[in-house]
Amino acid sequence: MCYSMAAKGADMKNSKQDSVLNSVLGAIGNTPLVELSRITRGLDGRILAKLEYLNPGFSKKDRIALQMIEEAEESGELKPGQTVVELTSGNTGTGLSIVCAVKGYRFVAVMSKGNSMERARMMRALGAEVILVDQLPESKPGQVSGGDLALVEEAAQHIVKERNAFRADQFRLPSSSRAHYLRTAPEILSQANGKIDVFCDFVGTGSSFGGCAAAFKEFDPKIQCYLVEPADAALLAGKAVTNPNHRIQGGGYSMPELTLIDKNHIDGYLQVSDGDAMEMTRRLAREEGIFAGFSSGANVAAAMQLLQDEHRGNTIAVLLPDSGLKYLSTDLWLR
User: Does residue 3 have a pLDDT over 60?
Assistant: First the structure.
């Protein structure tokens, strides 16, 4: 029997519930999990990559932005009409720009001048006020150190006090890691049918490692969770920081305490050099068609270390935190 397109549409309408989202916030999460079968060709084992750059703001930070704002609304900490402020390397700020635009809050992003300018432009396009903070004299653009971040934190605290604003503190609010505990990790387990052996994650705030590791350990305590840091700034692994101005933006700030991580969930520490992170990011683009950022390359490079050593034959899950579009002005792509 032949149906017209209109008739087919009517049948679909009658047989399915309306799946139209009422805002872009409904598009946050449920990102695909993809096996990196080309990069791992010839190795015994699998790497499963969660494509977090397919969130509306092109990063995993959309998840925590939504969770922090909604929990603050529910608790009454965030009141109608109040300004939201947060320090950011750009990704959390983009997520908060989107959430605040939809919900009607004014958002102020405080960011180091060392972060790539694509991020500041995107936040401004989404309606945010972006305040850029000078780096330390010895710092270089594209290389944000813990000292640079301390200057941004000082500026953010001043603005919160001055404007009586709500601080969406991604380093300290439990809702930041809860976003990954409640959603990211369960999505991975569901997509992989529970068959993962290892998780490794480059650490910035610690929210994705903390939330995912807690959920994975709860599901199966035998799942091994590794924390990833820059090779020259692996303070959490107990190593000396020889280059605080590393290239892997969005993390590796050499902060001694990350309150969102339960240390009992850390099974080991991995280090990745700037060069290895950048080369793996480029390989993801060339070999897998995945256009991601620096920390994505760091996560996959760390997973490759494990597949070639003590976790040969295992299945390793990683996050690809953000998009390569956010680094077009850097030498990651300017070659």
Answer: no
Q: What is the mean pLDDT of the chain?
A: 92
Nearest to 245 by CA among 173, 321, 138, 167: 138
Q: Summarize the confidence of residues 232-241 as an average pLDDT.
A: 90
What tokens does 298 get? 């760091």
- Model's pTM, two decimal places? 0.91
Residue 254 has pLDDT above 80, yes or no: no
Quote the Cα angle for 14-18-22, to 5°. 165
Q: Find all residues with CB under 8 Å of 178, minimum gap 6, and list them.
A: 67, 71, 211
CA distance 327 to 93: 16
**Considering 61, 161, 195, 239, which one is annotated as catalytic?**
61
Distance from CA of residue 300 to its chain's centroid?
14
The question of whether 61 is a catalytic residue gets the answer yes
Widest distance between CA atoms in the chain: 74
164: region left, alpha or beta (phi > 0 left; psi from -120 to 50 alpha):
left
CA distances from 316 to 9, 36, 263, 277, 303 (A): 42, 10, 20, 17, 7
Nearest to 252 by CA among 278, 229, 275, 231: 229
CA end-to-end span of the chain: 57
